[in-house]
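To the team - adenosine-5'-monophosphate-propyl ester complex, inputs and output below.
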Amino acid sequence: MSDREPVASAETSEAQIAVHWKEEALIHPSPRFIAQANLADPSVYERFALDNFPECFKEYADLLSWDRYWHTTLDTSDAPCWKWFVGGRINACYNCVDRHLPKYKNKAAILFVPEPEDEPLVALTYRELYVRVNEFAALLRDFAGLKAGDRVTLHMPMTPELPITMLACARLGIIHSEVFGGFSGQSCAGRIADSGSTVLITVDGYHRNGAMIDHKVNADIAVEAAGELGQSVDKVLIWQRYPGKSVSKTPLVKGRDYIVNDLLKDFAGRRVDPVSMPAEDPLFLMYTSGTTGKPKGCQHSIGGYMAYVAGTSKYIQDIHPEDVYWCMADIGWITGHSYIVYGPLALAASSVIYEGVPVYPDAGRPWRIAERLDVNIFHTAPTTIRMLRKAGPDEPAKYDYHFKHMTTVGEPIEPEVWKWYYEVVGKGEAVIVDTWWQTENGGFLCSTVPALTPMKPGSTGPGVPGIHPVIYDDDGNEIETGSGIAGNICIRNPWPGSFQTIWKDRQRYVDTYYAKYCKDPKSKDWRDWPYLAGDGATQAADGYYRILGRIDDVINVAGHRLGTKELESAALMVEEIAEAAVVPVADEIKGRTPDIYVSLKPGFEANKETEAKVVKAIEGTIGKIARPKHVYIVPDMPKTRSGKIMRRVLAAISNTLDIGDVTTLANPDVVEEIRVLVQGKEKVATKEAPEDLKRFGEEG
Ligand code: PRX
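Output:
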């Protein structure tokens, strides 16, 4: 991306501020919330000041039970691959399960809510979780032959078997790589191959939006496609949604496919000692979209990650063991790993897992669940909040639930939506934290500390304790603190939850996240290695950050990252397609969705079938989540004289923005043709738009 033009500078920021929502007034938490908060002591910011770095993070690590303490808190010798708590030994599963038994064995660890409303809730106590994790760990070790350091791919939806599988892996030091259940078999294959997994763990089916999804069919696609990529899978372990009864019509492959529930009969009552692992060994891989098309396997550590998610769950989400906590994300994303499974369970909370979609069968569903279970901490994304607000703005008031705390995560939230969340969902009682972070980070980077720093709709807040953000301009100059000028947000210091590297691709890790602002590539001093998050941001005079969106070719759809290149290469698999360009388009519910522009090879005619083939190719390769809003078949792509597709022009057309000067293009006339195709003959008044849309594709 070295040919990229400055994406944010002092000149662009004035305009940007004008189009963005205005700074909102601060809102203070209630005295009642403060009185019960885990963290109400303002000295925390001093304790976690840079002067006390890195030793300050002992406070988080001490929330865990260690087999052996570390000798080095932060080892920077292989910068920027940071190692935390070196010399320490620990087991993540022990910390989430075993250690709670003396006090909490009969307390619900997981409350599973099936999508069909007439199906009973399943409450797994810590004791029951312990039993089931042990039995499955025995199966993984003694039947599947897996051991510490092996990778195993999970392609599982939202049922309790997913955390059971993750924890069983963690118990043995096996590195799990869970692929979001909604991704296609093809997507799963890429991750199987990259991680080198020989075992795939899946389910036969699950409920989604009133239908029973045959999921096992994806395993067949995944194993075959992984084989083509050179990775053979010798065992597919299939959990049944209803033990003893298959909900999938896809036949089993003899000698490869095994029904977990059948195998488990041989492991009844088995116990497996948690393997004492070096703190800096990997706990899991989580793949995320990047700019080049190939998803990146973010490698997360055991000790550092667990310390960070336990600390942030306790202090930012204010989780106490007696809380009923519901994060409505999917465990297939980092939010679910950190804040449904590892963080809440490390603190002995009761964590709710809901199988289905939020508005099934109607927009009152989440509030009925909250009322029934007496959920008091709630966590979701702006896209869901927008959806629930649209489908049932008055629903929350009909139900008798009371949240003390709510989280929003994954994309910027409009102040108007924030206020509905606060007043209607939270009934004016709950504090809100707007947590900004990424798959790479393990846990929150910016947020208010709920009892200490007031809320500001539309702003994430300052760095959380121990996180020290800085905004740079494109030339590496620090943008003045609190100036409101946009730039690239970075973090000055490493933190324990950060990923360690990209699996098998250290160079890409360094290039993507550190190369841009590294002060000395040979340095072993962390001060020389600011972490580049890839988001644009501003900081207001009060120190609160506002996130403006991605600065790269990644589209954040409904809080999930999709690489534009991934979509484009999927479209190019369609025989008729010569060129493809994906741009983000503003969407009322999902925030952004992709629009795709394609041009055809000579001899092919534009028609609906070709459009449908493009959609099918994208859904088949990536998953329904990547479905484009529109497919436009254009006579030619707008191009620079050097032949580069001008995505900026296409993004402007899709979003009815000012197209700007196109006279220097190789084919300026095509721009008006495309505009007419998308917007119609009449000139449409241009709109104002968020900065990420205006800046999209600026590299030209
Ligand atoms: O652009 C930022 C946006 O989501 C990106 C990270 O996506 P992902 O790795 O899928 O992780 C999502 C959940 C942690 C970021 O680069 N983002 C995340 N949280 C926020 C946000 N944008 C604005 N406000 C947030 N609170």
